[in-house]
Design goal:
The chain is α/β, with parallel strands linked by helices. Helix content is about 45%, strand content about 15%.
């Protein structure tokens, strides 16, 4: 059987089918997207409509719009033979058994003998879909259940049937993890598998408890987000995001499919939800649901649904002392225990206790029905719903015995295996062995077994947990970690992954370490939500308020020297950005020899939003990367178009909405790597260091490698800025910042274009930055960002 999956046939261009096709295109695969034929002359009418809906989806399904060219449209009547070229055929048509069976019969007739065939169903037994097919077909058939939107949600549930070849299952697991960038779990062929089975129960009971006990929408969303380790969408905003019709439809379908479930009545949607669906209050897709976005007094606000009138009213900010009190406890388990203990006296704590504990107990009662693995159940909720911890990790966090005691107080039913674990003296689902490996209790083995780890994952957290000596140096903001094989990691773990004095200090320590023969090179990486959001604005503003501009100039020079140290180090330096990589975060990457970016990396030089220009070498790097190469290749080429692109990147604070868009903006070059899974990023970056280290030679710092376009081009840029202001597209102060940016990008007041050193441009950057900082309007922008988190246009 061929190992590589290069071409995919997606059958069904509905919401999920088209989104799966898009994500396959994101991964660089060739895709056939087919659907039933239209009734008129245009047989592709139906598939084209689904494709167009996908193109308009927000958030975007494609990592960049040009990837649409990797998807070829067709219909089942005229183009079905194209399935024969696919290495993987995935069905995503209507959730009805007979159409799926009929389609699979056709697939079997044309598919390659070694093609993997799967269904994205969530409600129909896979064994029923494969019924009547040959042994060869059934051997390579399984469920591949994506969560919507597939580009962003990490979870991929793999559901083998009794006939699925274990090699096929393992091949799909590797493909899902390494090519599609997913976190895979194995689920049993039961209705809605793991994620939606538990998610539907939790979602419906959370809403019912709120409505039946007089909790407001605002109250519930204020206490069911980050406070309990869940995303900011909490409860009701999540329903608006998913679509109320989808959430209710999944729960209603599940209710019909699980007659033996002792808690199936909890799956019934509350009557208020049915009324909302009747009134088309479905959430974001219809413009109104539990919340409605509107503008009032010149500001965008979110009104909330009045559950009596079904009209929207201004949202209130509820006073909930519990939130502030509980958040003093940074550890999630400690926080949850505090909240549960408060439930007798605090109504908000009571809501959390009376919805969280039933969800944990329900998850316990579903094992081993939906899965044999506690770890897979946890991962399904962590990866599918972005929970900080799944039900069994949460149970461990609050304490195994404590959890049992609290659930018994609520008369919640627990399965027999809980008592059996207690009798054996087992008091946690997870633990670590002497080597630091994570173990999970296995019911079949009646013992702890290693948690499955993707062999492609290198984790800073695991390395540090397994060997304390792996930490070479550390402070509150950053650490140096030995990755093995002579590769050193510079890990930024400051608040919000911002560059502060501690990060700079540890960066210089990294450069010092690189002089040691022990190291082959350096990886700059972390495992925070975002790689680096730029400079610590609070530190900057403190210096401004003290009038310490000479000291600020010194600190900017230090940062420049650090990043130039990375650029000209004697050993290779590889940066591994992911998530928000803004301002100084981009500058770190631009000074590395190689970038290994996660697919979901959002890079941009956004300093104009706080009234300054990039001064850690970002402006210099845009000139070096976007202006200099074409002028070196064609010295007579007009520099203006290239300077214009560099200027617009910074002046318009353009941010790539993926690593692929970031490449188009010039933040990544052709040698840089993009990996679909952030989990694999560190392993790939480490290999890049090792590959580069053999025969590595650093660039020459004295070389005049930047083309400075000179005063004439600078004047042309300023005229363009004036036109923007005349058209009211830019404020007067935007123009001030833009003029300083043009001054630096063009090399100051040089009478003619010429080649200069990087240090020359850095000097201009530094002076422009400090000059702008002294302006009250820049200070207003910084204050606004610190206070509101949003840029101010003044």
């Amino acid at each position: 059987m061929s190992e590589k999956i290069r071409k995919v046939a997606v059958l069904g261009a509905g919401t999920m089918g088209a989104a799966i096709a898009a994500h396959c295109a994101n991964a660089g695969l060739e895709v056939e997207l087919l659907d039933i034929a239209g009734e008129g002359e245009d047989k592709d009418e139906i598939v084209r409509a689904g494709f167009q809906r996908m193109l308009k989806a927000r958030p975007a399904a494609l990592m960049k719009k040009e990837l649409a060219g990797k998807i070829r449209l067709g219909n089942f009547e005229e183009d079905f033979e194209r399935v024969s070229g696919a290495d993987w055929v995935v069905e995503a048509i209507i959730e009805k058994l007979e159409p799926k069976r009929e389609l699979m019969e056709r697939v079997e007739q044309v598919a390659k003998e070694d093609a993997i065939i799967s269904s994205n169903t969530s409600g129909i037994p896979l064994s029923s879909i494969a019924e009547g097919r040959s042994e060869s077909f059934r051997r390579r058939f399984l469920g591949t259940h994506f969560f919507n939107p597939p580009r962003y949600l990490k979870l991929l549930e793999l559901i083998p049937t009794a006939d699925t070849d274990p090699e096929v299952l393992e091949r799909m697991r590797r493909f899902g993890e390494r090519t599609l960038g997913k976190g895979t779990v194995l689920a049993k062929d039961t209705p809605n598998f793991i994620g939606n089975r538990l998610g539907s129960f939790a979602g419906m009971q959370a809403v019912r408890y709120a409505f039946d006990n007089g909790y407001s929408i605002e109250e519930v969303d204020a206490i069911t987000g980050p406070l309990i380790g869940h995303p900011k969408t909490a409860t009701f905003r999540l329903n608006d995001t998913v679509g109320l019709d989808i959430a209710v439809g999944v729960a209603e379908n599940l209710y019909e499919l699980v007659p033996e479930d002792e808690s199936r009545e909890e799956l019934k949607p509350h009557p208020i939800l049915k009324r909302m669906i009747e009134k088309n209050l479905l959430g974001n897709k219809t413009g109104a649901g539990f919340y409605k976005r509107t503008r009032r007094d010149g500001k965008t606000v979110f009104d909330v649904l009045d559950l009596k009138t079904f009209e929207h009213r201004p949202a209130e900010k509820p006073e909930i002392p519990l939130v502030k009190e509980a958040n003093r406890r940074k550890d999630l388990g400690e926080r949850l225990r505090f909240i549960i203990d408060k439930a007798g006296e605090d109504r908000h704590a009571r809501y959390i206790r009376d919805t969280l504990l039933p969800y944990i107990a329900y998850a316990a009662r579903r094992v081993p029905e939906i899965s044999d693995s506690f770890a897979d159940v946890d991962h399904a909720m962590e990866w599918g719903f972005a929970h900080q911890a799944g039900p069994f990790r949460t149970w461990d966090m609050i304490g195994f015995e404590y959890g049992i005691e609290q659930m018994q107080k609520l008369d919640l039913e627990l399965p027999d295996w809980v008592s059996e674990m207690r009798q054996k003296g087992i008091d946690s689902f997870y633990k670590r062995d002497e080597e630091g490996r994570e173990l999970v209790y296995d019911l079949k083995a009646a013992d702890y077994v290693p948690v499955r780890v993707d062999p492609e994952i290198v984790s800073l957290e695991r390395i540090k947990a397994a060997d304390k000596d792996s930490v070479v140096a550390s402070n509150d903001s950053a650490s140096l970690v030995d990755l093995g094989d002579g590769v050193l990691a510079f890990e930024i773990h400051s608040r919000a992954s911002a560059i502060d004095s501690g990060v700079v200090e540890m960066g210089f320590r990294a450069l010092e370490e690189l002089r040691n023969d022990r190291w082959a090179g350096l990886v700059i990486a972390n495992e925070a939500d975002n790689f680096c959001v730029g400079a610590n604005l609070f530190e900057v503003m403190m210096g401004v308020q003290m009038g310490a501009f000479d000291q600020i100039r010194e600190r900017v020079a230090q940062l420049q020297e650090l990043l130039m140290g990375f650029r000209f180090a004697d050993k290779p330096v590889v940066a591994a950005p992911h998530g928000q990589t803004l301002g100084g975060g981009v500058e770190i990457c631009l000074h590395a020899d190689r970038i290994v970016a996660a697919g979901e990396t959002y890079m941009g030089l956004v300093e104009v939003g706080v009234g300054v220009i990039p001064a850690g070498g970002g402006t210099k790097e845009m000139a070096r990367r976007l202006v200099s190469p074409p002028l070196a290749e064609s010295p007579l080429a007009p520099p203006l178009p290239f300077v214009q692109k560099a200027f617009e990147n910074i002046a318009l604070a353009r941010v790539g909405t993926s690593a692929l868009e970031s490449r188009d903006l010039g933040y990544l070059d052709e040698d840089d790597r993009v990996v679909m899974s952030v989990d694999h990023q560190l392993a790939v970056a480490k290999r890049e260091v090792i590959d580069l280290a053999d025969g590595y030679r650093p660039p020459d710092r004295s070389e005049k490698s930047v083309y400075a376009a000179g005063a004439a081009i600078k004047a042309a840029m300023i005229i363009g800025v004036r036109q923007m202001q005349w058209g009211h597209f830019a404020t007067e102060y935007d123009g001030v910042i833009a003029e300083r940016l043009a001054h630096v990008l063009c090399g100051g007041d040089l009478s003619a274009g010429q080649w200069v050193t990087e240090d020359y441009i850095l000097g201009l950057e530094r002076e422009a930055f400090v000059e702008l900082l002294q302006n009250e309007k820049t200070q207003e922008r910084i204050r606004a960002m610190l206070e509101t988190g949003k840029p101010l246009r003044n």
